[in-house]
Amino acid sequence: MADVPQPSQPGDTGAAHAHPPYIGIFLVLAVLTAVELSIAFLPWPKRTLIILLLLLAIWKALLVALYYMHLRFEPTRVRILAIAPLPLAVILVVAVIQEFK
Question: SS3 of 4, please?
Answer without folding.
Answer: coil
